[in-house]
Amino acid sequence: MQLLYRILADVVVVAHFAYVLFVMLGLLAILAGRLLHWEWTRGIRFRILHGAAILIVVAEAWCGITCPLTTWENALRRLGGQSTYEGDFIAEFA
Hints:
The protein contains four helices and no strands. The chain is elongated and about 50 Å long. The longest helix has 35 residues. The two termini are 30 Å apart. 77% of the residues lie in helices and 0% in strands. α1 packs antiparallel against α3. The chain is an all-alpha fold.
């Protein structure tokens, strides 16, 4: 059972990393899209998703809340018998 928890914790890390990449690369895509005339970067769905992702990160920072994905990963690591980390995902893996 511990192996399952370790695998799930790794899946959460991959999802968390993908979220961070979406926030960071999304802005670069918007800027590049303006120069290269990419229509998809002007789409309302993309803009709403990207804006919401940024707002979630900002709200967590302003409120001093640890990201739920970090909390979830640490809980799974504890259940899997692995060590956890304190602080932020970016601070740990950067």
